[in-house]
Amino acid sequence: MPKKRFSSQYSKPQSTVHPSLNSSATQERSSSGSVGKDASPSVNELISSLRSSQISPSQRPAATVTTPTLPPQIRELLSWPETPTPTPRARNRRHFDRNGRRVPGPPPPRSWLDGSRHAPPEVKKRKNERAYPHDLNHLPGLAHKLHAEDDEHQRGARRLQDMCLRRIACDWEFMRQYERNNLADLPATLRMQLLSNIAVYGPEDGVGFDGLKHILMTQREDGDNSADLSQSENNEDFFRMDISGSLGWSISFRQLIEFVEKPTQQTELAAESWEETITNSLRCPIPHLTHLSLSHPVPTVSWPRFLTFAKHVPTLTHLSLAYWPVPSAAPNSTTTVMSPGRGQDVQYGATNYYSHSIDSNFREAASILRRLASSIYSIEYLDLTGCISWLPALYWKGEGEKGIDWCSEWIRLSTLHVPSAYILQPESEYWEVAQYVQAVREQMSLERALIASFMRNQARRSNDGRTGAWIDVKKDDWRAYETYWKSSTNSEDMRKRNLLETLEIP
Which residue stretches does the UniProt record annotate as biased composition, category Polar residues (predicted)? Predict the structure, then answer.
């Protein structure tokens, strides 16, 4: 039988020749008589030449360029410029999230962080559709305003103090990490002002739970390296907490409860040893909280969780709920419908898509506000800026249902702040003017309802020996735009003017 012959096939690529030896290899190949001068190169030769061209010395990466250095004395004699400092390496040093937890793994690409709420401030893009806090004094209680009777030294000191607090707020990402052990040692007045500055000039997500904890609580390490976070003595004069723009973004209600919840008293059997002499304080970290701002939350903020939180702060006198959504126990079930096997479809939630716009049914919203009034009964100032969509819930009364009883609930309320936050311009469109006019009408309806309730219940209050407080409703001043489109002959401007003049009719 003839012997089978197999051609050897190697997976190893053919070795290439260094470009400097190409000339000798070519001479040897030309002198050989096996290959003709006019023969075309084979595939292997083409691959070899391609590989040799890729490792050509001309295309080899250049070495690191080093700047020649000289001693300072010789450099001055030769008038050479100083050696430039090396460019620092770009490193992402953000290893912790907003709650102080370490972030595992490598940093995410910057394209992923674009528009994310977990992105650092230098990467994140500010969205125009979100409303941000812009006023330091939207919640009463700050005493840093400049007064006319102050001398030049006092006015200069106040300006310097405001500049320092604003600078700290702008660099809050850095300050809350490197000054976390010193923030709680500031006076209570400065800490309250610092929170307002952070809400306006700080990060978009607000102060954060970790930063708020560093401002309110001092960590003291003992021999066992344990921290005592119940420092109510340090917050005796702390009564105002402004966390505008933080609720839902960097702080949750569960985290807020840690600052206002009173610890339960432990029994003697719960002690670890009989030598333990440290007694847990029955006071919360913020014992005298009376001013609270929860404005500008996430659109999906939970009203049931807020009602749970309100049970821990019954002594609030000033509250800001600016830009809060419509009160609802289940806001995600507005368009949800249950389809039983037999019968008609049933609305899953208490409010459907047309309850407010067509039916004017604010039963669920009024019920939630009534529960809020029973929990926080000492309110004197209530800020509902940007809440035009659910203002009728404050005076809604249905068949068999009751809203807020202004005779027995919130009897100390003296100021109700309900501006619409709409600003008209001479270039505003007609639909913007119509939206503003509708908001002003809602404010007027609320004011008339409160006046009627006050007059109707005045006799009953006088019989009980109580005198109810008059509620001052702060609304939009539409007369600030009465000069708009007054002398214009454009038909569109005349429509805007006629629509604005309808507000003069009571």
Answer: 7-34
